[in-house]
Amino acid sequence: MSATVKKEKVSTFFRPISSVTVTNIKQMYDLYAKYYENTSLDIFLTDLSKKSGVILVTRAVDDQIVGFSTQTFFDLKVDGKRVRGIFSGDTIIEQAYWGNNALANTFYRRLIIERLKRPFVPFYWFLISKGYKTYLLMTNNFYNYYPNVNGKDDQYRRVTEAYCQQLFPDAFDREKMLLDFGESYVRLKGDVATITPELVSANPHIAFFEKVNPSWRRGTEVPCLAACDYESLVRSIVDVPWKWIKKHILGTHRPEGLELAKRQATSSGDKHKQAWLDVDADEAIERTKAS
Question: Which of 189, 200, 51, 187 is CA-nearest to residue 129?
């Protein structure tokens, strides 16, 4: 990816669903259909109508939408107590802009804004993952999350069960803690990133992901959550600057399995996987957490 593409200016902003224009929707769907299969405009509109808002990424020179991420905010009752969450829906970036951190920065600012609206209500980021890459995005950047290779997550499991039952009652398998949307499910074009024995050996989180989602090749999704709590905020005050120093000054920050995954993507000629691995989302999230 050229430095020119990475530096091309974009604007990112959150827009409530009621303020999304017809022009926005057309550009969003054109981008969506380019990367997803088993979809249609009707399906896209039906899903969009259920969302609270969308983060738009627009090209500065002409305001063309080159990326977006839909968001849903909602409340739940778990064990008789109220919790609040943000669910990340469809997220897509035009290939020419892979490596640009604008969307990640805006998303995490939105997390902070929603967290502060009700500071004493437990708040979570809800997501679903059919591949290990999305799962690693969570494990690499949050402290308390579900599912966790280290266990001790009964409380988080109950919250996960509650949001799955509310959002995906027909697809949720409570016993397996998986979501199965069937063969007609809207999905990204191309194969999900392959989990090789080498990756499993290099990274315990990848090995654990395959354990909890053994049917990932068929497209089943793992429901996940990350706690946006004050414990994590306090820990990040120390950890984020230290991680930045190791990465940019000492050169010792090497996420487990990342270099191996990059080599595998390069040797297989898979530009999509390689581009994803080049995205410095980790750094973007760190900057937002530090703020």
Answer: 187
Give pairs for 17-26: CB < 8 Å, separation 24+.
17/48, 17/49, 17/51, 17/52, 17/53, 17/54, 20/48, 20/54, 24/54, 24/56, 24/65
Q: Identity (one letter) of the amino acid at 39?
A: T
User: In the chain, at which residue ranges do the beta strands (DSSP E only) sit?
Assistant: 10-16, 36-37, 53-59, 65-78, 81-93, 123-129, 145-146, 172-173, 178-179, 187-188, 222-227
Q: 179 Cβ partners below 8 Å, 6+ apart?
A: 128, 164, 168, 171, 172, 173, 220, 221, 222, 223
| 13-25 residue pLDDT tens | 999 999 999 999 9
Q: Which residue has the higher pLDDT, 82 or 6?
A: 82
Tell me the CA end-to-end span of the chain in Å, nearest whole number.
28
pTM summary value: 0.80
Average pLDDT on 208-226 reads: 94
Main-chain dihedrals φ then ψ at residue 261, nearest 5 degrees:
-65, -40
Residue pair 143/230 in contact by the 8 Å Cβ criterion: no
**Long-range contacts of residues 155-158, Cβ cutoff 8 Å, at least 24 apart:** 156/225, 156/227, 158/78, 158/79
Query: What is the DSSP annotation of 3-47?
Result: HHHHHS-EEEEEEEGGG--HHHHHHHHHHHHHHEES--HHHHHHH
